[in-house]
User: Which sequence fits this backbone?
């Protein structure tokens, strides 16, 4: 599947804020869990995102494309050009709080994945991001929640699901405590796993379903 001379999948991580999911990817790489992955670029939609510092500390090239002050189409075009110039194979949306124009998903069909802090199709779509997702889960009264990694399509949070992980909600949970547990126990676990599966060429999209091929022995 891969034709890069290095044999590695060139990954770009898109961020907007704190970047703890980016950190989980960097840490997984440092532990040797992503041997086929090269983190080639981190793109932030905001110049003051702490995620940029995490990337710089890890020696990953960064680029800021401010979302503010641009039309959605202009932002999407600049982002696409940047990723194509960097010869990116896989785009990871990790706390990326921007909705892109549909053209993006044609260029990166089945090559862009997003982590969402709920069990899709619950508490997802436009308006469900960050802490709002956990507020919604608590006010609905669900007993389990979790995280989903899925291929990104033009439908916000609507693409084929790669991995999900669930945890129970506890009576004393606040949106903040729930967000933290979902991150620690779900997002930071399944996002590196999904990137690894992609880098091993083990993900196959069949309609809405993602089949995970057995590991080669
Ligand atoms: C994460 O919980 C991520 O799943 C969520 O925002 C947080 C960003 O944290 N993303 C969305 O809600 C996108 N719909 P991070 O910047 O520390 O990774």
Assistant:
């Amino acid at each position: 599947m891969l034709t890069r001379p290095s044999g590695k999948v060139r990954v770009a991580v898109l961020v907007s804020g704190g970047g703890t999911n980016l950190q989980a990817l960097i840490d997984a790489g440092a532990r040797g869990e992503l041997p086929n992955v090269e983190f080639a670029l981190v793109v932030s939609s905001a110049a003051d995102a702490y995620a940029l510092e995490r990337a710089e500390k890890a020696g990953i090239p960064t680029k800021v494309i401010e979302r503010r002050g641009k039309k959605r189409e202009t932002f999407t075009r600049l982002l696409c050009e940047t990723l194509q110039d960097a010869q990116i194979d896989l785009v990871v949306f990790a706390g990326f709080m921007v909705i892109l124009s549909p053209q993006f998903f044609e260029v990166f069909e089945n090559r862009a994945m997003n982590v969402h802090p709920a069990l899709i199709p619950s508490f997802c779509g436009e308006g469900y991001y960050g802490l709002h997702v956990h507020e919604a889960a608590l006010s609905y009264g669900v007993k389990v929640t979790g995280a989903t990694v899925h291929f990104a399509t033009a439908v916000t949070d609507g693409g084929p699901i790669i991995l999900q992980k669930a945890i129970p909600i506890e009576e004393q949970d606040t949106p903040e405590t729930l967000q933290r547990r979902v991150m620690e126990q779900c997002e930071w676990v399944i996002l590196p796993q999904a990137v690894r599966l992609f880098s091993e060429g083990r993900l196959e999209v069949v309609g809405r379903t993602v089949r995970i091929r057995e590991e080669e022995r």
Observations:
- The first helix runs from residue 20 to 30.
